Amino acid sequence: MSLPSVYSEPPTYSEDREGNHAVVDFNSSVDSKHRHMSDAVLLVVMGVSGTGKSTLGAALSKALRLPFIDGDDLHPQSNVDKMSHGDPLTDADRQPWLETIRKTAVSSVLNQLGDNNGSHVEPDAMLETEKSLDERSILGRSGQPSPVRDEDQKLGIIIACSALKGSYRSVLRGENRSEEEGWKHSGKLPTWFVYMKGSRELLMDRMMKRQGHFMKAEMLDSQLKTLENPENEKGVVTVLIEWSTEDQVREVVRALEDGAG
Questions:
Q1: CA 245 to each of CA 27, 55, 58, 61, 239: distance values in angstroms, whole numbers, following the listed order
Q2: CA nearest 66: which of 120, 3, 1?
């Protein structure tokens, strides 16, 4: 796998919870005639609230030239309402949300592959997810991404998602639909997790300073209690939240290069 080097110019970062989500479109696509779903990557930036998942996701999008969306934008309104009132989500609340994230990632890669890979996807599901992607500026106006500069561009998508439990990460990996995905999409979409790790004290300090975010600071302890450490799982790279964004990106790029080697 050929990955772009970490940016030659320092990127400009913006906080995404001050009323604007950090949704980035870098028109990711390739000459996909001989490429398949298994050549792509879903990169999930995970961790509890306050770790800076969206900021890192946007930075990785620039470094890797892959589209990025915030998984929080894919929550149904019922989930947003519950969290706004300080009510934690149940696993039943999260299940359809996690499935939507996985389907969105697969659909994005299918659009990057174009019509040359011989894949099939259910029309209704494809149209629904394309609409979601287009609204988040991942697709171009035509519904298909524009070509990038070189044919070695990596296929994939970056999504920020808390992914606190191992069972949630299994859904995001597509483990409960592997046969269906493989049959429809010329191979399964590989998934990596970027685990943003930090102390409770630093996280609480960040949470108390954030404005306009639906997550209440008092819910942090609940999230930390729920968190199942992913570091012993395959395809996980850990970055510390006290690192600079540039250092976090370098560590992720290094891990991806090592994993692809």
A1: 22, 8, 10, 12, 10
A2: 3
Residue 7 region by backbone torsions, left for phi larger than 0, else alpha for psi between -120 and 50, else beta:
beta
Handedness of CA 62, 155, 168, 254 (dihedral sign): negative
Q: Regarding beta strands 156-160 and 41-46, do their DSSP bridges make them parallel or antiparallel, or are they unpaired?
A: parallel
* Three-state DSSP state, 44: strand
Candidates 91, 36, 41; CA nearest to 65 is 41
Beta strands (DSSP E) in 89-207 are 156-160, 191-197
Euclidean distance between CA atoms 28 and 64, whole angstroms: 9
- Please tell me the pTM assigned to this model: 0.73
Tokens 């996807």 identify what position? 121
Residue indicated by tokens 């108390």: 208
Using the Cα atoms of residue 69, residue 75, residue 81 and residue 85 in order, give the sign of their dihedral: negative
In the chain the first and final C-alpha atoms are separated, in Å, by 7
Q: How many CA atoms lie within 13 A of 147 on its CB side?
A: 7
What is the CA 227 to chain-centroid distance, rounded?
A: 18
CA-based nearest residue to 252, from 198, 204, 211, 194: 194
Position 231, amino acid = E
**pLDDT tens track for 164-217:** 999 999 999 998 764 354 445 556 899 999 999 999 999 888 877 766 555 566
